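G., before I forget:
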Amino acid sequence: MTSPKQQVEMHPQRWGDPASATDLPDSARGLIELAFGLAETPAVDEVTVPAPALSEELLDSLRAVLGVEQVLTDDETRRLRTRGKSTPDLLKARAGEVGDAPDVVVRPGSHDAVEAVLAWAVEHHVAVVPFGGGTCVTGGLAARRDGFAGLVSLDLVRMKRLVSVDHESMTAVLEPGLRGPEAEALLAAEGVLLGHYPQSFEFATIGGFAATRSSGQSSAGYGRFDSLVVGLRVATPRGDVRLGSAPMNAAGPDLRQLFLGSEGAFGVITEVTVRVRRLPEVELYEGWRWASFATGADAMRTLAQSGLLPTVIRLSDEAETAINLARPDEIGGQSTGGCLMITGYAGTPAAVEAKRSAVSRLLSELGGTSVGEGPGEAWAHGRFDAPYLRDSLLDVGVLVETLETATFWSNRDRLYGEVKAALEESLGAGTLVLCHISHVYETGCSLYFTVAAKESADPLGQWLAAKARANDAIVATGATITHHHAVGTDHRPWLHHEIGDLGVSVLRAVKADLDPTGVLNPGVMVP
Amino acid sequence: MTSPKQQVEMHPQRWGDPASATDLPDSARGLIELAFGLAETPAVDEVTVPAPALSEELLDSLRAVLGVEQVLTDDETRRLRTRGKSTPDLLKARAGEVGDAPDVVVRPGSHDAVEAVLAWAVEHHVAVVPFGGGTCVTGGLAARRDGFAGLVSLDLVRMKRLVSVDHESMTAVLEPGLRGPEAEALLAAEGVLLGHYPQSFEFATIGGFAATRSSGQSSAGYGRFDSLVVGLRVATPRGDVRLGSAPMNAAGPDLRQLFLGSEGAFGVITEVTVRVRRLPEVELYEGWRWASFATGADAMRTLAQSGLLPTVIRLSDEAETAINLARPDEIGGQSTGGCLMITGYAGTPAAVEAKRSAVSRLLSELGGTSVGEGPGEAWAHGRFDAPYLRDSLLDVGVLVETLETATFWSNRDRLYGEVKAALEESLGAGTLVLCHISHVYETGCSLYFTVAAKESADPLGQWLAAKARANDAIVATGATITHHHAVGTDHRPWLHHEIGDLGVSVLRAVKADLDPTGVLNPGVMVP
């Protein structure tokens, strides 16, 4: 088990572990200069974290609850719990803005200790922001603090146990503070696998996956995180909720689905019971080339509707394919245009071979051309690295951000066109809009956009305007404002378009019931 | 499209279409006499339906909303909307008890008309019970009427449109009043299939499937009904809710899962968007013999955890297998003990052959013995007939009822033993308790019990006591009180064991928000 002291903290102004960051390769710098020009935009080094707004007396009462060591008010700890890792978050961090740092960071070590923190917060009317990996990209850590005595970051870093494994039912009970690799290491020692690999995998946590309805790169094979959850324990200001009496039931509404995606606004998830699978003996990735994004997407649809999905399937559009091909070290340099699809398989050798052969036959019939394992392995190798690249681009004055949505197949092409147009219109000539499909269902798919533009004098305002245009386009086509990154504060103004005024009313009613004084992540998720 | 006038009504005291009912075969009568004795227990013919409690003035205001023809107060129509089809419901109906008949039956033809009925009900404080197929077995139609001016049965029989089919996304929008075969006929004309076959298939409706989280006999292949739903429209006293922006999303909690299983207590489902599949070209059923229920169940678990489920898979325990073998016309007469498993496959010839061959290989390896297609075809032929048999047994003084639950695999054996013991202890010596597994997941399965006992002088009290003992045993093992028959009024006293006091509190908060005056199915589902 990783001890909290040893856990690598993310850099306050950048993604991930500073030791893993790499400089831009010279070839990339050349391309970027050509496309956007280069402008060094150094981050502000001198950062002043405001003094905690909570009195020493109040902090002492918290220390009495949790112990002195688990109540942290030093500047660095508080700075590291300020906001998440969206580009707007990074732009603010680079500008030295930490005015919304929490007043105190607490580290409860158990469900009961979480409940004790919540009781303390209710008593003193202090806002509580649950903190897992800090990888949020939708403003879910930026709780409203006005009207509250202060703001506490409830860091789940000490709750890292694999509580139990049920090998017969193939389930495991995990604590929320486990990061992706930590959870997989503990499970691997039991011969099983969770199989959830979002891009934030190395830092994001089990509790965060559940609270935000995360989806991983192997969603085609293992399912979205919400589909992996069979049970939950949640600490609320009114007490304990335990759900998950059976894989599925008809005992009224499925309340698990109310806490999944609740982003700390209904309670703090303190245990998650997940489906696990046997550790795969073989993992294999390969590339396929398609004449166009549309033909590749149609092939994905056919696979999904034939019940023939590999473990990983993703398809880059023409622009994203071209950009990746410009990095010849990563995909083998086969630059013949079209669109690149990655397929991945995991399992026993026999199962992998059977699935691969059936999928490959169908893809060939549908017009795909295999380009071998090189591009697949290159993708798998770099699968968690994109956020580091974003930092390098921000360093040279290129505004980079991603956004994602999902829709039914028949609306895919319209959604793709309208979001792309909205971003290009807002960000102007020379903007790069790349897209891939990385999650597919029988009935539809996600679209994941990456945007790069030359930074204006006000890059934050520049991006917020573009993102608003994109969100407007998304809701206008009837698609979802987020397939796997949650609502946070950034998507909240659009949520009512998706669930209607009554849907919003229901969320408010649930929140009022579980959190009558509203201390839980105020302003996040619930409009 | 079936017109409402032509729709076959179920018999008020029996299951289904009187024209489809058959007498007990003589061979069965002999066995029953041996086991329980025979006692003719005729139903009461003279039934007095109480006069409507609503004034003519109030009824006139309803007629003004819906039109005179859609507001029915005749005795026969009201009697046919009284309660559902559980054995307690049938025992009451046979005893001539219709004191809880609705005061009026209304038949709105559109979402807007449903909203108009709800507005009328709120204005006059009249309770509203949505009515689909009337096949409920958990008391979901027995709303509380005290404190209300009266009770209206909101019959969805006129809402039978297939609104649209999206062939690219493979979804269809269905109105709630479509019975199973009607929905499938409309979809088949479009070349697609819903694939939802609960035992109540011939009479139950799309709205009812959604409102109760029904699961069908082909759940292994096509999924439970809740997993087939991608969108919903719901009429509530506060207006319209439309959900389903994408196959899945992370835009907060999945509110679809709050209305699925809400049994009319949160609103009236007026449209359901479902996944559809291509019509199968081949359907094929076969039988497998297992040495014991445990070895067969383990094989099902292995199949599920290998991702190798057929379209249908079910396994009878030793007692149920023996009873079925006593009806030699139906399963080919191979009486060599053990347990019978039915496997079924549907799809293209190639897909069926590939799946069947992989499944059969695994089942053989695990110790199963194929007994050919005879038993499978016999099961498929009689798959909707068991409720007719129940009537015939009630006719001769045999108390027959079913109940079901679900749990994780590691708890299966304990749950099976404890429910069986509870029923046998409550109903006494000579009671037959049969069980089968008909729905399986990677992590667990359902257990479906059929109970037969000699009727006491008070068969209703006799069954209610046994069912309470069984429910106590179910919640004591941590299993669910219902896998696919909803809460109704019968399971309501046990719901808090499953979702906790806070879960109950959340349900009440949602109900209070959407239905502030509480007119929607009062007393049903929400404790």
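Chain B touches chain A through 90 residues (CB under 8 Å). The first helix of chain B runs from residue 26 to 36.

More on Monday.
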